[in-house]
Every structure is written in structure tokens, then in C-alpha cells.
Amino acid sequence: MLLKTFGWSFAVTALGLVAAVLYGGWTAFGIAAMLSILEISLSFDNAVVNAGILKRMNAFWQRVFLTVGILIAVFAMRLVFPVVIVAVSARLGPIEAVDLALTDQDRYQELVTDAHPAIAAFGGMFLLMIFLDFVFEEREHKWLAWIERPLAKLGKVDMLSACVVLIVLLITSMTFATHAHLHAGPADKAETVLLSGVAGLITYLVVGGLSGYFEDRLEEEEERGHEAEEEAGRAGKRQSPVLLAGKAAFFMFLYLEVLDASFSFDGVIGAFALTNDIVLMALGLGIGAMYVRSLTVYLVRQGTLDDYVYLEHGAHYAIGALAVILLVTIQYEINEIVTGLIGVVLIAASFWSSVRRNRASAARPSRTPHSPNSGEVLPHPEHTGETSR
């Protein structure tokens, strides 16, 4: 199971590190290896969130996620994206931008630094919407009940997430953006941050809305299909489940790619702390992206999210933290290690809470063998402070 899921990641690691040695010797090997570790540590929460979406797709779309998706992740985000942001910010053509990245790496890094306020605003708004939509939704399991219970009640207000995000964007544009960190010193980038933040919000609403629409249609069709499956099959009118899965899965796949792009912002920007060489960046971050993809599929096939019910909560709290960090980095520099550790700590805490819940759930029936209600199904203890009704 492990080799089947991570086989491609192991192969890409070997090829990528060999290519790094051939390209720049053992120094390049070390840089590529460190970049891989950086990407994995910063994107572990990405894998957990991806798994929550990917488990609703069929095996075909899971394979697409690991093949076509990884090509998009590596080439579009880890190689093309750094070049594109330089080209747009410096008003250069793609070929000129590539030439600049290969021949004048110091100038290239300066342009990327100047583009960071726009990148942070776009990614921050997109990720903040994901976090808010999660905490504003009523859920069966609550990890931090003292936070999640009142927020779920507030979430009954329509479009509350979008309103909160726009308020945060407005505050950010009037505070951090007025002294944005650029290579030549602080500068007012309020207009840039506003436009980029709105673009991030629109992207989330469009992609998330399309995926949600087709997902709802798929669920409705599946419910009707279960009721009339035999009759529809005899009449030859049975709709293909592959087609239905394809409609829904296509937009969920698109959503996953945009989500991956938003998670990749900190990894791509953080890579410049280690190297300005886009070849080494593509190799190192590409290897890390492969492991994130494989880890996502592993979590789905092992059913880890079902066994550890708070893991998804921890990942979304990590997303919220990353969104805030991205907005703060418009003005202040924050070490990427801090960003990665926050995500790891939150996910580790949610994992441990899930383990404690599972242990308590397994031990509870044995403690009350003579309970008069022993024939009833006991609710799972969640350590949320909720009382049984």
C-alpha cells in the first residue's frame, strides 16, 4: 500500500536529486533536498484539506489528481508561477522574464519581493474564505467547541464569510498595505492589495460555487439512482455514474488546483530564502509537491479522516493561521519555519485530540456493562464540553 501510493514520489525524488547533482553538484543537491522538506512541512495541512475533498471523487479522478494535477502543480506553480509574477510586475514578456531569472537572479528576487503584497493579498483572501466557511458551518464533531459552537450559530447569516473577508481586506489595505515591504523600502500598496484581495475572493466564489453546484447535483442524482437503479437499468435509461462523477469531479479538481496554488504561495516565496535559481526551485518544490499529492491519496485510501475526526479541523485552523500570516507579511517578514511549525503544531494537536477521543470511545462501553441503556448506541465523547440530551 505504501509503495503503491508513494512509488511515484520516491521515483521523482531520486530523479530530481540526481538532476540537481548533475546541474550544480552536491551544493545543488543539498538545496533541492531542503526545498523539498520546506514544501512538505508548509503543505501538510494542504494534504489534509485536499483529502477531505478528494475522498468524494472516484478512483479515476484520484488518478487524474496524481498525474495531470501534479503536472499543473509542478510546472504551473513551482516553475511558471515565479516567472509569471515577475513578468506581470515588471511588465516583461515571458521570454524576457525567463532570461532574467536565469541570468540576473538578484534582480529577479527583487521583482518577486515587490510582487509579494499582491500575492499575499490574493492568497490570504482565498485561504481566509476556506477557513471561515469551515468554522461558520454546523458540524457533527466539534474540536474547540467554545470557538466552533458560537461561530456555527453566526454562520446562519447569509454571506457572512464574504462580509468578514472584505472587512479584513479593507483593514489590511489601510494598515499593512500602507507600509508594504519592498526591496527598496516601505511603500504604499493599498490599491494593489485591494484589487488582488478582491480577485482572490472572486476566484474562491466562482470556483467554489461551481464545484458545490455540481457536487449537490451529484448527490441528488445518486439518491435518486439508488431508489430506481434496477428499473432504470432495465429501461436502458440509467445515467452513467462516471459522467456524473466527471461533472462534479472536474470542478472539484479545479478547486483543488486553485487551493494548491494558494497553499503554494508561501512555499514559492520561502524558496527565495534558500536560492534564486528557478531550476533548483522547480526541482526541490516539485519533489515536495509529489509527496503532498501522494499523502493526500494515502489519507483518503486509509480512511484517516474518518478515524481521526478532528484532523480536518486542525488543518483548517492551520489554513486560517496561514491566511493571517500572509496578510501580515505584506508589511513584516516572518520566517517560513514559523509558518510551517504553526501548521504542524495545530495538526498534531488535532491528531492527538482525535486519538484521545477514540480511546475514550472504545473504553466507555466496558466501563458500564450493566447500564440499563446498554442496548442503546452511546454517543462518541468528543471532549467538546457538550452535554448529552
UniProtKB/TrEMBL annotation:
Keyword set includes rRNA-binding: no
Signal peptide location: none
Superkingdom of origin: Bacteria
The entry's keywords: Membrane, Transmembrane, Transmembrane helix
Region feature (Disordered): 362-389
Positions in coiled-coil regions: none
Segments of skewed composition (Low complexity): 362-372
Pfam families, sorted: DUF475 (PF04332)
InterPro entries: DUF475
Bias type Basic and acidic residues, positions: 379-389
Membrane-spanning residues: 6-35, 64-90, 118-136, 157-180, 192-214, 242-263, 269-292, 313-331, 337-355
PANTHER family with a match to the protein in the record: MEMBRANE BOUND PREDICTED REDOX MODULATOR, SLL1022 PROTEIN
NCBIfam families, per database record: PRK14013.1-3 (NF010613), PRK14013.2-5 (NF010619)
Protein name: DUF475 domain-containing protein
Species, as recorded: Streptomyces poonensis
